[in-house]
Specification:
DNA-binding; S-adenosyl-L-methionine; repeat; transferase
Length: 491
DNA sequence: AACACCATGAGAAATCTT
DNA sequence: AAGATTTCTCATGGTGTT
């Protein structure tokens, strides 16, 4: 009966309409969320919180950022804890300190490209009036530490989830933090209005990775996997230390991406440096040029005057994967870079998932959407959480091969089922998959970022872009899982 | 202003297939 | 050897936050 209901609403567009809201310009569409918020806004709790915080001596910036992150239901104590944690992390983090360059080595401005993520832009049509829901855009926290990171002395340990978000199952969704405006609002709205936790992996390892995570996991008593990964470039890549010029102040790498610097570029850099002899003789403007390219392309020093992009091995290690995880078995070098660049940072994700260890001492059943090279699987394994049944959905055959190889190499006792296309996962199929073990304890997924990522110069179209629109599969399937599990419980 | 950003696509080169 | 396919090389801005 429940399944029948699901089948009725399984038409994607019908379902989309059910949940989608276009706040601006479409007064006709009545939306559940819009209504709720309008009522709620009648009592602006966060305004009150802001007032008391500023009266306590915090700056408006600190206070508003903290209130935004902690949510309107947070107590003043929780909010001040957050501000405290933020201040601590700020003083700890000393990155990229340097004199400001006078010249930019970018190419000249060109003709304006066509309209950018028109839909999102349309949503925030200027309504300069009092704070309405449409202006309530999710903002990124600074520092980007989410509810807390391992080295932070204080962390937020409590939050109030919307009723609809409370598990089972637990869910964990991930995507790039720096998405076009409005994207995270939409993502949050589609996943039971859970506020994203934005975290930069530079607080976990030697490389930055700014991501948003929407999840309903407990946030108390998190712990990192051991051993802790190297936290600086020098510790992660000790061979580079010898060649690192004193005027390169980097201690952390920038985000690891899917494309890498050309040999021509590193050649140009070598030639630019060679004529000056020792590195201390390199003039200021050349240093600026070299540093600009090094930051842009994550180059490291591998010899005298020689910079190089990271090897796949090194990317693997920085992201927390076992050595050779993506190596061999028929994957090309290019695809290896691509698969790694699109992956989780294992230590970061594991920290968030660590709370599951006490809840599921005998192991978990997991649905993994957009699995990629299995970041979530690796994280759980490293945490010592047994994997009982894993249904992994991943389009790329090369990636599926990687996960399957890892599964066999690590002598998993559980059962791994691989599927290719999330769009093919209908209620019947899902019900059939879940029947042997009752249901999923955890649903994980990081949907395609192609049309959200800042590096995309061609088709950064937002959530409606060709690949990134697959995001909607996550809440669709999560809903299905939830319904099927409730249906089974009723029987 | 400075800076960072899970990328894409055209064309060349290498490799595989017939 | 010719054609088909895969892999590699390289250049290509703009948005949003600080």
């Amino acid at each position: 009966m429940m399944i029948q209901t699901l089948r009725d609403r399984s038409s994607f567009h019908h379902w989309l309409h059910h949940r989608y809201s276009t706040p601006a310009g479409s007064g006709s569409s009545v939306d559940r969320k819009t209504k709720d918020v309008e009522n709620y806004e009648l009592l602006p709790k966060h305004e009150k919180a802001l007032l008391s915080l500023t009266s306590m001596g915090y700056t408006v910036e600190e206070a508003s950022a903290a209130v935004e992150r902690c949510g309107p239901d947070a107590s003043i104590g929780e909010i001040t804890d957050f501000i405290c944690a933020a201040q601590m992390a700020k003083t700890e983090a000393v990155f990229y300190e340097e004199e400001k360059p006078k010249k930019l080595f970018t190419s000249n401005g060109k003709l304006k490209r066509k309209k950018f993520h028109e839909l999102e832009a349309h949503k925030r049509k200027k309504q300069k009036g009092p704070l309405t829901e449409e202006d309530e855009v999710i903002r990124l926290p600074n520092p980007m530490i989410g509810f807390g990171v391992p080295s932070g002395s204080t962390a937020i340990t409590h939050r109030t989830l919307p009723d609809a978000a409370v598990g089972p199952p637990f869910f964990y969704y991930e995507n790039v933090a720096l998405a076009p405006k409005g994207v995270w609002d939409t993502i949050s709205r589609f996943i039971y209005d859970v506020q994203p936790e934005f975290v930069d992996s530079q607080y976990f390892c030697a490389t930055a990775r700014k991501r948003g995570y929407v999840h309903n996991l407990p946030i108390k008593n998190r712990f990192p996997i051991l051993p802790l990964p190297p936290r600086t470039i020098h510790d992660a890549l000790p061979m580079t230390r010898r060649w690192w010029p004193e005027w390169d102040p980097r201690t952390k790498l920038n985000c690891l991406q899917t494309s890498y610097a050309s040999s021509r570029l590193t050649d140009r850099i070598r030639k630019a440096l060679e004529k000056w002899g020792e590195s201390e003789n390199v003039p200021e403007d050349v240093r600026k040029y070299v540093m600009y390219e090094c930051r842009k392309w994550n180059l490291v020093w591998v010899g005298k005057n020689k910079v190089a992009p990271l090897e796949p091995d090194e990317v693997e290690m920085l992201l927390g994967f076992p050595r050779n995880h993506t190596r061999g078995g028929g994957i090309s070098r290019t695809d290896r870079y691509k698969s790694l660049g699109n992956s989780f940072q294992v230590d970061t994700v594991a920290y968030h998932l660590s709370v599951l260890k006490d809840i599921f001492p005998n192991g978990i059943n997991m649905l993994s959407l957009f699995s990629g090279i299995g970041g979530a699987e690796v994280a759980l394994h490293r945490l010592g959480i047994p994997l009982k049944n894993v249904v992994s959905v991943e389009l790329s055959e090369a990636n599926r091969d990687i996960v399957r190889s890892w599964w066999e190499q690590t002598n998993q006792k559980g059962n791994l089922v691989h599927l290719a296309d999330v769009q093919q996962l209908n209620p019947d199929k899902l019900e059939q998959l879940m029947r042997p073990f009752g249901g999923f304890d955890l649903v994980v997924g990081g949907s395609p970022c192609n049309n959200l990522a800042g590096s995309n110069r061609v088709s950064r179209d937002g959530l409606e872009g060709e690949q990134s629109a697959l995001f909607y599969e996550f809440p669709r399937i999560l809903d299905l899982v939830k319904c099927i599990m409730n249906g089974q419980n009723e029987n």
